[in-house]
Amino acid sequence: METTQELKLDPNQVVPLYHQIYLILREKILEGHYDTHPLPGELVLAEQFNVSRVTMRRALQDLVKEGLVARGRGKGTFVKPRVEDPGTGQYQTLSASAMRLQASGDSSDLQLITSKRIIPSADVATLLHLPSDAVVEKLIRVRQLNKQPIAHLTSYIPEDLSGRLCRRRLREFPILMLLEEAGVKVTKARQTISARLADSAVAFALGVPVGAPLLSITRVAYDEKGRPVQLLRGLYRPDRYDYRIELSRKEVKGQSSWQHVNEVEFAFEKHQSALDSL
To answer: 224 and 150 share a domain?
Structure first.
């Protein structure tokens, strides 16, 4: 059952109510909330969001247009199956710079929001190479700098590994660091960087409007045997978080192309004075 905070809309925002609803439902669909059952009926949703059926219908139509759901008269609204290939993308060696992608500043700037054991959605189970009935620990934390929110971090850890984490240090240190302290040798990761729009829960945590653009990072970390040990889904405020990478121009087989010089890194330098003035 959704909480009041999750379904709270802001009528004063420039973003229309139907689009706010669309963003919230889209996020829930992508996180697997409706994998095994239909969405609530149009009237029920309209009551939950405290909007008219016309507004609710417009939000559902946008989900249909995007190909996320299918609607049938008398049948309800169902999530359309999504095919995701976890084998795409490139492996990237984890280094001190890559660790900073998750550390994101001083270790004391973490706020633990949620820690619970769940049956993961199908896409989470697939990325972690787990059976559909496996249990994982889901942790939601907010990274802060100078008491200002920067990142909303959701991690999924296999149950047998999560039990080895030092619980009191979850509010202080990156999870990969805690896994390594527990004897897990993390050697590489597969990472995807894109953009997302803030739903109401994330917007509340990061102090941004619903629908605000965010930098999105999805990363699966692997141990030395190739087993996935953590799935991280991070959403970052672009006004406080930079993605930087140094490239060099090199010639390969007669053709010039860009190649990495340094590892990826997030930096805060140019935002520091602005943050200090907040």
So the answer is: yes
